[in-house]
Amino acid sequence: LADVRSLPGSKRYPQFNKEAMAESLNARGIRYEHFPELGGRRKARPDSRNLAWRNASFRGYADYMETEQFHKGTDRLFRLAREAGPVAIMCAEAVWWRCHRSLISDYLKSHGVEVVHILDANKIEPHPFTSAARIVNGKLSYESDSLL
């Protein structure tokens, strides 16, 4: 389980704190790793090229995806998948389309990874690229069409 919360804790639900989750999951044979380098809550740069995102939070995360720190996080995520098999990605937001997981999913899908969202105990769906995503020369882009 890859935890991509920037703040991996909860006062209201202490069972979801980083330490409690790691202990509980490890006791059940599930590997838990926190990925602060993939956490959300990133600020958009004034010179952002990712103008296909109208939402400033998503634009900020798209800007962050261009950094070395983000790529170190995705490299670690790919390594975890090679070592442990399929990886689930979690955050505090219940639905993927309102969360930075949607952008992480775009990135993974653009790199040939099959991404499936677990909606509930009985329903999954394959990841569709977000509406802002474009593949340009084989790379993920969130630039507006006018900049491409």
Strand content: 5-15%
Q: What gap, in angstroms, lies between the N and C termini? A: 36 Å
User: Per the principal axes of the C-alpha atoms, what is the gross shape?
Assistant: globular
From the helix content, strand content and strand pairing, which structural class follows? alpha/beta
Secondary-structure element order, N to C: EHEHHEHEEEE
Domain count: the total is 1
The low-pLDDT segments are: none
Strands side by side in the biggest sheet? 2-1-3
User: C-alpha Rg, in Å?
Assistant: 16 Å
How would a crystallographer describe the biggest sheet? 3 strands, parallel
Task: Let me know the average pLDDT.
Answer: 96
Instruction: Let me know the number of strands.
Output: 7
Count of helical regions? 4
Helix content: 25-40%
Structure report:
31% of the residues lie in helices and 14% in strands. It is of the alpha/beta class. It has one domain.
